Amino acid sequence: MSSPLLLALPGNECWATVLARHTGGELGLLEVRCFPDGERYVRIDSPVSGRSVAVACTLRNPDEQILALCFTAAAARELGARRVGLVAPYLAYMRQDTRFRAGEAITSVTFGTLVSTVIDWLVTVDPHLHRHHSLADVYRVPALAVTAAPAIGAWVRREHPDAVIVGPDEESRQWVTAVAEAAGVPWVTMIKARQGDHDVTVTAPELDPWRDRVPIVLDDIVSTASTMVAAVERLRASGFRAPVCVGVHAVFAPGATEALAAAGAARIVTCDTIPHPTNAIAVIPLLASAVLAQV
């Protein structure tokens, strides 16, 4: 095991610095820019020969970053890096895991295959695994997923020890149960019916036993927030106090935070897998041991 050289793509420098401190690694110098015609230019300005390199890139906007990511990883390998990995606290393109309509691309598998051609290993946080049983179904290299549940559970214990964790749909059950166990509080999940990207309704089981508790609506990815909005509205209509909304990954499409506030959310909190003003739960330090296990 050795200390890694971390190469942070633009916009990832702050959390990569935290990770470097917790791994004992070095934050290398990387230049990424566009030529006048829009094509990407990448230059690694740190020696990589014989070293284990970790490319740091959370994939909030994957279409804007994938070429620079691939170019950086490939260049590190060509320049003699011993191993090249990817640290992506948020891993994009995981939700399209089947063909919901005829002719659709299963982009999770295609994206994973593409990235696997330029890296030797991957570390991420709570990837959206639903129909895929593990990252091995998607990536062809060793891939470790760190869970944010202990950090979120500790935050709940500290901030809202009288909480009930509410999953806005059945898919959230895996995160809800883990966080509730870590926090030592009860949990419940709702049932979602989706009519479109922004059109979601939820139904809930019997909620009366938890009416005196602070509802914390928890999901892994908050993008349009339509599912969380429906859950917040359902809780408010049932007479609960204003819910706290907690997400692992702060993707947040335009207008999402405003929609949650308008629905009646008391507060919006996320982990630091994607830099965002709502970040209040630190999980980047939890990646250190997983990274060191790969390098």
Radius of gyration from the alpha-carbon trace, in angstroms: 20 Å
Give the SSE string: EHEEEEHEHEEHEHEEEEHEHEEH
What top-tier CATH class of the largest domain fits best? Answer: Alpha Beta
> Which strand order do you get reading across the main beta sheet?
2-1-5-6-7-8
CATH architect. name of the largest domain: 3-Layer(aba) Sandwich
Task: Return the average pLDDT rounded to an integer.
Answer: 93
How many strands, which pairing sense, and closed or not: the largest β-sheet?
A: 6 strands, parallel
CATH topology group of the largest domain: Rossmann fold
Give the number of helices: 8
State the oligomer. Answer: single chain
Structural overview:
The protein has helices at residues 13-23, 62-78, 107-116, 149-159, 173-183, 226-237, 256-263, 287-294; strands at residues 5-8, 26-27, 30-34, 40-44, 52-56, 83-88, 121-125, 143-146, 163-167, 187-189, 191-194, 200-203, 214-221, 244-249, 267-271, 279-281. It contains 8 helices and 16 strands. The strands form 4 sheets. A 6-stranded parallel beta sheet has the order 2-1-5-6-7-8. A 6-stranded parallel beta sheet has the order 10-9-13-14-15-16, with helices on both faces. The protein folds into 2 domains: 5-147 and 282-294, Rossmann fold (3-Layer(aba) Sandwich); 149-272, Rossmann fold. With 295 residues, the protein is α/β, with parallel strands linked by helices. The chain is 30% helix and 25% strand.
